[in-house]
């Protein structure tokens, strides 16, 4: 196995990478050009394995996961359970599919229950993100969101978990006769309502999911049921993680090697700067989230909104909406609705 301590490595390259004693990173592919991989972590659990996150339900991802486990002298039947950080497709769906054949348990944060109820329901009103785009004044973007992002979901990949994870729950790996590892689940809503991270205080590790990522900021509130103020939740969750003992970050996307506190401080500073820029755009006369998003830079390359593909333009617009809502909560802007669109003024 390859040690996993080089932050400049191609973290998306397939393989098995040792992060810590009995902890291995397994990158699995994603079917898009942006986030090209998701990190699944295999953690020794007695004579079996617990996996943190599972990957997207793709044949290639399943094959690579089996190959990686084989390098650890194991197979899918040796996986006791999946601990899933949140309900997004690239973290949850492969666990659902593999459970049918191999019987491992799947555990997910309790806050994701409303999302799964919607995904398994009649979906009469269409995807929630399309309704939110209308409120954001991005009606011209809707026709561009064809294909998977606008279609009704397939409920067969959104079955319910075996276990709901509660905030503060301790998950013991190993058996009484072996050295045990205790993971503490910490609820970190924001990216999704039910997002959880798993702290390993004794090992000095944090399985940070999409809550704390080393190179990018996670989307906020892209889920079937959105909290009243997901960005406020996310910022509070960052502050909460900042109060935990510092740890080595094991993120769902990107290389390992960064310390959690360092990155949390960077993310808090980023959103503070973003709120200032959003407020300035409203002061300059932009009133809808889509209008504000059009004058803000996006990605580390500082692209314009019209340079983004439709899916990322949607995420940018929705993220601008939640920043505007935080400004409204702080009394820095006022919001009113006109023909179903939210307009913000100072």
Give the termini separation.
Answer: 57 Å
Average pLDDT, rounded to a whole number, is: 92
Morphology call: globular
Strand content: 15-25%
Total strand count, please? 15
CATH architectural label of one domain: 4-Layer Sandwich
SS-derived structural category: alpha/beta
Low-confidence stretches: none
CATH superfamily of one domain: Ribonuclease Z/Hydroxyacylglutathione hydrolase-like
The CATH topology of one domain is what? Answer: Metallo-beta-lactamase, Chain A
Radius of gyration: 20 Å
- What does the main sheet amount to? 8 strands, mixed
**What is the share of helical residues?**
25-40%
Q: What is the H/E string? A: EEEEEHEHEHHEEEEEHEHHHEE
Structural write-up:
With 346 residues, the chain is an alpha/beta fold. The chain has a domain at 2-120 and 158-258: Ribonuclease Z/Hydroxyacylglutathione hydrolase-like (Metallo-beta-lactamase, Chain A), CATH 3.60.15.10. Helices cover 31% and strands 22% of the residues. It has helices at residues 59-71, 89-102, 113-119, 128-135, 230-243, 260-283, 289-295, 310-329; strands spanning 2-3, 17-20, 23-29, 37-45, 48-52, 79-84, 105-109, 163-165, 170-173, 181-187, 196-200, 205-209, 248-251, 334-338, 341-345. Helix 5 (230-243) packs antiparallel against helix 6 and helix 6 packs across helix 8. The protein is globular and about 65 Å long.
């Amino acid at each position: 196995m390859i040690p996993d301590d080089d932050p400049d490595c191609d973290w998306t390259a397939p393989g098995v990478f040792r992060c810590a004693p009995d902890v291995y990173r397994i990158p699995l592919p994603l079917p898009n050009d942006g986030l090209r991989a998701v990190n699944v972590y295999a953690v020794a659990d007695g004579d079996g394995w617990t996996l943190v996150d599972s990957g997207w339900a793709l044949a290639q991802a399943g094959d690579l996961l089996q190959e990686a486990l084989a390098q650890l002298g194991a197979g899918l039947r040796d996986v006791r359970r999946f601990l899933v950080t949140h309900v997004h497709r690239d973290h949850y769906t492969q666990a659902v599919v593999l459970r049918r054949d191999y019987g491992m348990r799947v555990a997910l944060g309790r806050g994701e229950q409303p999302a799964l109820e919607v995904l398994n329901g009649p979906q009469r009103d269409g995807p929630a993100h399309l309704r939110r785009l209308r409120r954001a004044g991005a009606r011209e973007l809707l026709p561009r969101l064809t294909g998977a992002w606008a279609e009704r979901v397939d409920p067969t990949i959104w079955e319910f978990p075996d276990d709901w994870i509660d905030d503060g729950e301790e998950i013991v790996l190993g058996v009484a006769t072996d050295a045990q590892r205790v993971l503490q689940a910490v609820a970190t809503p924001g990216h999704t309502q039910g997002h959880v991270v798993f702290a390993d205080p004794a090992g000095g590790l944090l399985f940070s999911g999409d809550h704390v990522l080393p190179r990018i900021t996670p989307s906020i509130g892209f889920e079937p049921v959105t909290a009243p103020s997901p960005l406020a939740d996310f910022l509070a969750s960052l502050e909460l993680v900042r109060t935990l003992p510092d740890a080595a970050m094991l993120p769902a996307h990107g290389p390992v090697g960064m310390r959690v506190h360092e990155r949390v401080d960077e993310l808090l500073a980023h959103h503070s700067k973003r709120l200032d820029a959003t407020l300035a755009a409203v002061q300059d006369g932009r009133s809808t989230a889509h209008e504000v998003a059009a004058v803000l830079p996006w990605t580390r390359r500082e692209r314009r909104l019209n340079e983004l593909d439709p899916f990322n333009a949607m995420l940018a617009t929705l993220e601008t909406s939640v920043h505007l809502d935080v400004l409204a909560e702080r009394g820095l802007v006022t919001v009113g609705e006109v023909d179903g669109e939210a307009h913000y003024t100072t």
